[in-house]
Amino acid sequence: VQLVAELRQALERDEFVAVFQPLFDSDERPVALETLVRWQHPERGLLPPGEFIPVCEESGLIVELGRRVLDQAARHYRRLVDEGLPGLRVAVNVSPAQFNDELVRHVTETIQRHSLPPEALELEITEGLLMQDPERAIELMRQIAALGVSFSIDDFGTGYSSLAYLKRFPIDRLKIDRSFVRDLGSDEDDAAICNSIIGLAQALDIRTVAEGVETVLQLDWLRARNIDEVQGYLLGRPMPFEELLPLLLRYL
Ligand code: G
Ligand code: G
Ligand code: MN
Ligand code: NA
């Protein structure tokens, strides 16, 4: 209860900040930024999402927080364009507790308010969200996809999504969970899992993204299998926009 009150106050005081992690395509060019929220706590410093997202989800505060994050993503997309970097996507994580009609409204409003090209916006959702109430998920996804916004399945491989269903959702990308990427090159099971996910995605005409790429070995392994996009500490950590911008400008 204490933390909920603190979080409500943090929203009022605008203490949530966004950091951004770049994603790169197979030509090693930046193609997207994932928006990741942090809490700039007045006494405890910069707190990671694990310390407050669960409570935000339980208390419903995630709805307002999600709206702020979406707004940050749209504002920073505009910054990219102003700096001569058009064409990158901005991705935002969406919790199951946010996945309702209000999200459709927030997305629609954000696109209009910031003149954000809908194709530039990507929503990251989890398998858990899809499987909780698949019919409802499909309906909401179709409404949002109709705007031109795309969907990624985050942490793919850790949940229990049925392949039959996967085909029915308007999904643009699968983000292979970093637990499968970690031991690529040494663990044969992880290599087999990554191979199957990439093969499945290619068969369903869905793009693939590997997250948690930390070594050149992993990167080469994935590129040899035609992974579409990569993300990870090797290529760029989550960082404040002002820090990331000069790195992106180098690719111009
Ligand atoms: O930023 P970090 O890598 O520590 O993220 C940890 C987890 O928090 C990830 O699972 C990520 O999806 C989640 N997360 C980060 N930012 C947001 C956000 O703005 N909204 C929601 N719902 N989850 C987020
Ligand atoms: O669940 P989601 O994919 O949204 O989580 C993103 C989280 O993954 C963030 O907490 C981010 O800091 C973390 N992350 C991003 N790249 C790497 C990486 O290369 N290695 C590890 N261990 N974590 C990463
Ligand atoms: Mn994510
Ligand atoms: Na992930």
UniProtKB/TrEMBL annotation:
Highest taxon of source: Bacteria
Domain EAL as annotated: residue spans: 1-252
Protein name as catalogued: PAS domain S-box-containing protein/diguanylate cyclase (GGDEF) domain-containing protein
